[in-house]
Design goal:
Chain A is mainly α. Chain A has nine helices and no strands. Chain B is mainly α. Classes of the chains: A mainly alpha, B mainly alpha. The interface between A and B is large, with 51 and 36 residues.
Chain lengths: 218, 87
């Protein structure tokens, strides 16, 4: 066997091992990648595009990954960047009628609201906690619906911080917005989310003893 | 330790910063000391923690089979391109 064909075989084996490792890691993370992309984009087809695009980028940039133990965070960072770039690109398009939900988020009613305060009845503690009952009855479908209803600028920050555990500084860098804006959008996002959950719960017949029909979101 | 105990208002005001790990270790210890002795603030913190865990669970979605196939095809294409460029 010649030296050149031997080094060619080595390269092929290396490529194969690299591919197997990458595919195994990606498969392990696929559900969460897709779930995260789905919460960010809200649309299954868009979520699939973002995930496939991010995985393609990760594969081509794999040599830049210094520590394989950090693959997961690295891949999710690529996914987030891919989503943000695509989102920005779409924001630059002339506005379509169905884009209105993402416009003027500051006009939404995000006055202070606490779901806990709506539910908490200290004098009823010996009867069991209303907060516990609410959380136990809260369905994933309801939560996903409430999250999906948040305007993009709020939803993405809630997902980055609450789901992915990003710091405010990391979100600020990722989105290119000041820290104060991250804080205020996160605060509004949480407020709107809690209001939506409260509204859904009440529409589904959830009641808080001694409150009757009070406690509508302000 | 700081010189004084935090009030409930101060703890609630900083609760999300605390849950988001955006407070320094000193402030974290102050808040945890308060939570250990104040049932109302503890209940509030627990509620927000559990709600947050539910939000985190919301990304637990099974990826469709066609996405698995699409990714495999994509990697096959990259492999083929790489093989062609080195041969």
């Amino acid at each position: 066997m010649s030296a050149s064909s031997s080094s060619g075989d080595d390269r092929a084996r290396h490529r194969q091992r690299r591919r197997q490792w990458f595919e195994r890691e990606v498969e392990r993370l696929m559900d969460r990648l897709y779930g995260t992309a789905l919460r960010l984009t809200r649309h299954p087809d868009d979520a699939e595009d973002i995930v496939a695009d991010a995985i393609g980028k990760a594969w081509t940039k794999l040599d830049e990954l210094r520590d394989p133990d950090r693959f997961e965070g690295w891949l999710f960072h690529i996914l987030n960047n891919t989503f943000v770039s695509e989102w920005r690109r779409r924001q630059c398009r002339p506005k379509m009628a169905d884009d209105s939900e993402t416009c003027e988020p500051d006009n939404l009613d995000a006055t202070s609201f606490s779901l806990f305060q709506q539910l908490h009845q200290p004098f009823l503690l010996w009867w069991g906690s209303t907060e516990d009952r609410f959380l136990n009855e809260l369905l994933q479908d309801d939560l996903q619906r409430a999250l999906d209803a948040l305007p993009d600028p709020y939803r993405m920050i809630v997902v980055f911080v609450e789901v992915q555990g990003y710091t405010y500084g990391e979100v600020s860098e990722l989105l290119g917005i000041p820290l104060g804006t991250v804080r205020s959008r996160l605060n509004r996002g949480r407020t709107l989310l809690q209001k939506a959950l409260w509204k859904q719960a009440r529409e589904a017949g959830f009641t808080v003893a001694f409150r009757g029909t009070e406690g509508e979101p302000p | 330790m700081t010189g004084r105990e935090l009030t409930c208002e101060e703890v609630i005001e900083q609760l999300f910063d605390y849950l988001d790990r955006e407070v320094d270790s000193q402030r974290r210890a102050d808040i945890e000391r308060h939570l250990a002795r104040c049932r109302d603030c503890f209940s509030r913190a627990e509620f927000e923690r559990r709600l947050r865990a539910k939000v985190e669970e919301s990304v637990s979605v099974r990826a469709p089979q066609r996405l698995h196939r699409r990714v495999k095809d994509l990697l096959d294409r990259f492999d083929a391109d790489e093989t062609n460029s080195t041969s």
